[in-house]
Amino acid sequence: SYELTQPPSVSVSPGQTARITCSGDALPKQYAYWYQQKPGQAPVLVIYKDSERPSGIPERFSGSSSGTTVTLTISGVQAEDEADYYCQSADSSGTYHVFGTGTKVTVL
Amino acid sequence: QVQLVQSGAEVKKPGASVKVSCKASGYTFTSYDINWVRQATGQGLEWMGWMNPNSGNTGYAQKFQGRVTMTRNTSISTAYMELSSLRSEDTAVYYCARGQEGFDPWGQGTLVTVSS
Question: A interface mutation test: which of B45, B50, B96, B100 has the most A CBs within 10 A?
Fold first, then answer.
C-alpha cells in the first residue's frame, strides 16, 4: 500500500523556522495537503494543493513541492504552533487517500 | 458557517457493529464528498473511505473493504459510517470531513470503544 513518510519530530525555538517534509512516490502526480492537530481537537487544514493557504490560516504557514517531497514551512514559529502535523495525498491513481505518519512540532 | 456535527460516543462489544452519523450544515450537502478518518489513541490519522452524497458512490480503503459501509440521507443532510465485526483494534476516534481540495472542515469526532 502507498505510504507517505514524515520525520517523527521537529524542535524549533520561538521566532525560528520549522520545516516538515513528506515523501511519497506519487507526490509528483498528486496534490498534497497539510493538517495541524492539537491535543484533543480535530485536525485543521493549513495548506491545500501543495502551496495554497485557506482563509484564516496565518501567512507564516507555507507549502512547497519538489519531486517526491513536499514541505510545510512555518516561519517565525509561535508557541501556539506546537502541534502534530500530517500531510495527506492520494495514490498515483487518485483512488485512495493516505495520511503521512505525522510530525510532532515542539516549540522550545 | 460550514459545520459537521457527529453523533455521541459509543461502547460496543467485539463482533458488534457501530453506526456513526455526521450532520452537515451551512452548505449544500450534495455538492461535496464526505470522507471518514479514524485515529486510535496516541496514533496517527487513518483514511477509511469517501462517499459522494449526490450519487451515493463510495470508495473504501482496502483495509476496511467488506467491513465498512458509508451511506447518506440527503433529506436531513446526514452521512453515516457503519463498521461491522468490531474488534478491540477498532477502538478509536472517528471523524467525518468534507472533501474538496483537502478535508475541511472536520466533525468533532466520535469515540468508539470496543470492549468485552
Answer: B45
| Beta-bridge partner residues of A103 | A85
- Find out whether the peptide bond into A28 is cis, omega within 30 degrees of 0: no
Whole-angstrom Cα distance, residue B99 to residue B80? 15
Could A99 and B44 be called an inter-chain contact, meaning their C-beta atoms sit closer than 8 Å?
yes
Per-residue model confidence as pLDDT tens digits over A42-57: 999 999 999 999 999 9
Say which of A97, A101, A102 has its CB closest to residue B35: A97
Cβ distance of B44 and A102 shorter than 8 Å: yes
Give the separation between CA B103 and CA B45, rounded to whole angstroms: 12
User: Can you tell me which residue has the cell 449526490?
Assistant: B54
The burial of B55, by beta-carbon neighbours within 10 Å (0-12 exposed, 13-18 middle, 19 or more buried), is given as exposed
- In tens, the pLDDT along B64-107 reads 999 999 999 999 999 999 999 999 999 999 999 999 889 999 99
pLDDT at position B101: 85
The bridge status of strand B33-39 relative to strand B46-51 is antiparallel
Q: Residue A66: phi, psi to the nearest 5?
A: -150, 110
Q: CB distance A95–B45 less than 8 Å?
A: no
